Backbone:
């Protein structure tokens, strides 16, 4: 397995990832990531991180300025974490998230945020539940924070 960082559409995996996202995630959030990639709106430090196995995409996550909630209160989001069902149980999301954390530290970001409806999933990576916000579908999601600087 290999973790790759994609920036804009100059990468051979960009279109593959668009197709993977569209085929595997069936909610409004998938439309956001699909359209952002299709329309090439990732800029600055924003990236897509993918895990590949034998040249197939096994999972991905995005690292973006905004996420799927209605707030500007937080920035630097790990978003759209997804692993294909056939590859689950292989710690792929952990490896993708670890790569995003290293990338964010290299940019000297102090905090990362993650939005989810999942229970007890991201605490094992050091994230702490800090807030609950409404997403664009009108559902409530938990907001998690990971502090990247030592006190």
Residues:
């Amino acid at each position: 397995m290999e973790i790759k960082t994609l920036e804009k559409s100059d990468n051979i995996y960009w279109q593959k990832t668009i197709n993977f996202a569209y085929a595997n995630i069936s909610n409004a959030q998938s439309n956001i990531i699909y359209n952002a990639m299709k329309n090439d709106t990732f800029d600055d430090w924003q990236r897509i991180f993918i895990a590949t196995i034998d040249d197939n995409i096994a999972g991905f996550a995005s690292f973006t300025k905004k996420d799927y909630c209605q707030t500007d209160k937080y920035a630097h989001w790990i978003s759209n974490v997804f692993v294909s069902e056939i590859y689950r149980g292989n710690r792929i999301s952990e490896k993708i998230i670890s790569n995003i954390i290293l990338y964010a530290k290299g940019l000297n970001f102090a905090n990362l945020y993650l939005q989810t409806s999942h229970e007890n999933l991201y605490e094992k990576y050091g994230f702490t539940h800090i807030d609950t916000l409404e997403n664009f579908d009108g559902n409530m999601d938990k907001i998690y924070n990971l502090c990247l600087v030592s006190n």
About this structure: The helical segments are 14-24, 28-38, 92-106. The chain has a mean pLDDT of 88. Residues 92-106 form the longest helix (15 residues).
